[in-house]
Write a structure and sequence with these properties.
Elements (H helix, E strand, L loop, with lengths): L1 H14 L2 H14 L4 H16 L7 H27 L2 H32 L4 H18 L2 H11 L2 H4 L8
Helix pairs in contact: 2-5, 3-4, 4-5, 4-7, 5-6, 5-7
Cofactor: FAD
Keywords: Oxidoreductase
Pfam families: Acyl-CoA_dh_C (PF12806)
Length: about 170
C-alpha cells in the first residue's frame, strides 16, 4: 500500500502539477464519463460496508466509511450541477476533490485490510498492528476530508471574485 502511495505522489511530479491531475480526475474521469466509474467504486464501498455492518470489530471503520461514501456522491453531484452553469466550478473544486477522493479511497482499502487480516490466519500481533495503523489513519488522516468537503461546497465564487486588474 505504501508503494502505491509513493507512486501516486510521484505521478504529480512527472505530470507537472497536482492541478493537472485533479482536473483530469474530475473533468475527464468523473464528469466526462457521467460518473460511471465513480458509481461502480462507490457501489463496491457500499457493498463492503453493508457486508460488515453487523461486524462489531469493524464498526469503527465501516460506519465513517459508509457515511463518507454517501457524502462523496452528494458532493460530486453538487459540483457537477454547479459546473453546468459555471465551468470555473471544476477548476475551483479539482484539487480538493482529488485529495478528498484519495483520503476516502485509502480509508476503504484500510478497512478492507483490517477485514482481511481479521479473517486470515496471521498472528495476533499482525492483526493488532494492522488495526492500530488503520485506526491511526481513520482518526488522524481521514478527518481531513471535512476541510476538503467544506471547500468543495463553497464553490468557485470566492476564487473568482477578485477582478483581474487587481492581480499584480
Amino acid at each position: 500500500m505504501e508503494q502505491f502511495a509513493r507512486d501516486a505522489r510521484i505521478t504529480t511530479i512527472y505530470e507537472g502539477t497536482t492541478q493537472i491531475q485533479a482536473l483530469d480526475l474530475l473533468g475527464r474521469k468523473v464528469f466526462q464519463l457521467q460518473g460511471a466509474g465513480l458509481r461502480l467504486f462507490l457501489e463496491r464501498i457500499d457493498a463492503f460496508c453493508q457486508q460488515h455492518a453487523g461486524n462489531a470489530p469493524l464498526t469503527e471503520f465501516v460506519a465513517p466509511l459508509g457515511k463518507l461514501a454517501r457524502q462523496w456522491s452528494e458532493i460530486t453531484q453538487r459540483v457537477g450541477v454547479a459546473a453546468v452553469g459555471n465551468p470555473d466550478e471544476i477548476g475551483a473544486a479539482a484539487v480538493d476533490y482529488l485529495f478528498y477522493s484519495g483520503y476516502i479511497t485509502l480509508a476503504y482499502f484500510w478497512a478492507r485490510s483490517v477485514a482481511a487480516a481479521d479473517a486470515g490466519a496471521r498472528s495476533a500481533e499482525f492483526k493488532q498492528a494492522k488495526r492500530a495503523t488503520a485506526r491511526f489513519y481513520f482518526q488522524r488522516i481521514l478527518p481531513r476530508t471535512e476541510a476538503h468537503a467544506t471547500s468543495l461546497r463553497a464553490g468557485a465564487a470566492s476564487l473568482m471574485d477578485l477582478p483581474e486588474q487587481l492581480f499584480g
